[in-house]
Amino acid sequence: MRLAGFGMRAVAASVTVGLLAPLARAFYLPGIAPHDYKIGEAVELQVNSLTPSLNAENKLESVLSFGYYDERFHFCQPEGGPKAVHESLGSILFGDRIYGSAFDLHMLKDTSCQVLCQQKIPGADAAFINDKIMKGYNYNWLIDGLPAATVKVDDRTEQQFYSVGFELGSSQAGQLVPHFHNHYEITVQYHTLDAVHHRVVGVVVTPASKNTVLPKDGTASCDAAEPMNLHEDRDNSVVFTYSVKWEASEKSWATRWDDYLHAVDPRIHWFSLINSMVIVVFLSAMLGLILMRTLHKDIARYNSDDAEDLQEDFGWKLVHGDVFRPPQRFELLAVILGSGYQLFWMVVTTLVIALLGFLSPSSRGSLTTAMLLLFIVYGFSAGYNSAHLCHSFGGLSLKRIIITTVLFVPGICWVVLMIINLCLVVAHSSAAAPIGTLLGVMALWFVVSIPLTVCGAYLGFRRKTIDPPVRVNQIPRQIPDQPWYLKPIPSALMGGILTFGAIFIELYFIMNSIWFHKVYYVFGFLFLVFCILVITTAEVTVLLTYFHLCAEDYRWHWRSVYTAGASALYVFLYGILFYFSRLRLASYASLITYFGWMAIACLLFFILTGTIGFVASHLFVRRIYSAIKID
Fold it and tell me: 430 near 49, Cβ under 8 Å?
């Protein structure tokens, strides 16, 4: 009854936080200070890696990004060569490679048909560019921290919004050679503060394909009607041109991201939330029924002094002497649970920071940076809980638990990431992390994470162990044959699908954001979905643990972990479905990158939900066995 009441109170608290989340806008911290430009002041246009988007068939054919100054593109470079822009750790790890450019923009100074340069593109490189056009690759530019966008219209609401990036080229059905976009109409929206100062509040680029001929005097005309086609059997002469138009806007600097943060039909998010809450209410009702009726009667009967009731024990009381027996491979279990605590606090802290507005999209990669740094800092929690649980299970080797905790989850993730990174290097993708960045991450691991894990493990090992409320028998009790639905695989699959059902709609938006390079900023919904995930996982695991105990199966420790963590299997299967429905990856590097990241995400999700399930089951088991009298 108490657990059911807690579940309902947690739902109410989650809804309250979600309703209050929009108030965080009042405390929005954008991450960068606004830049006030004077008339005629230079405004820098920065260029980022080219990224894939949906092709003409509405499929994503690649997940590899390529640097803007990749020699195969032959884009114009500034005098003295491109200079890299300082980026955050998360921005670099997710493939951003930002540089200065040859574009010359000045506040409120319109320009028309300015020539950047003329380049000769060989046939082999023309084939490379045409292939990227057919795969829907986009330019990604930045002006004053705002991405250059394409104006699109929502089919449902008919509302205009900004889609980040613009096309490298265009291709129509049946067209043998695509059109290469070499002319750019740049519209910069500005907000006037006073007669002197102005701020950039929007950037829209309309690309065009023009077979421009550059005369000897160097002044070009951008009126060419013939498109620029890159022929793969000969060299191609390409003239890159651009025009700049400054457009006054009533948008303030504080709201300039609103057009970029367009949510595709928010009712879908609300439907996802309501769907998840229905599952929670249903599980809470079942749990309350069990706790208020069945379990309450069981405890009253076990504690009864009536001679008839004392004749024979039955149900979950029969295994009281084995239910707190240390599980097999308890050191590995302790390491998984310690890492689960680490992930849980990382996720909670990240979501709270995001709700308060500290993770602005203006600060590229801030979300990834925050998650990585918090994971490293919470290594203390991993060490502390791993050592404490291992010692409580009867483990005596502190050194072994420290080494396993330090290497298990970070080691698996590091190996998979190195395989992904090697494939990206071979594919000449700019998403491959530089050696310096990888060494920096390793330095953070060795200098910060490992010492914190060691300190946490030392303190956790010295903490008083968790003593069982009942005595453990010396000889293990024989477990009777279980019905098919309580066997490990069926019970885990049943428990996992309920947890997955609470998150699968929001999971679609998250995967869309990651693989289609869209801005995800509905952290209020995400926080509520996470709270519902925690409650659903806990309730499902407690229910199945109770059923197992009633069937005289006392091996609940590992059962609670993989019953709760089985939802990770459904997440991976959903990733496969997402691949066949939205993606069509042709290269091995794209396949390894996609499924490698999915494997890492599912592993971490398994550890997180498995830990939630174990903690809920542990509290439940201790509570019910503490409430009965044992002879």
Answer: yes
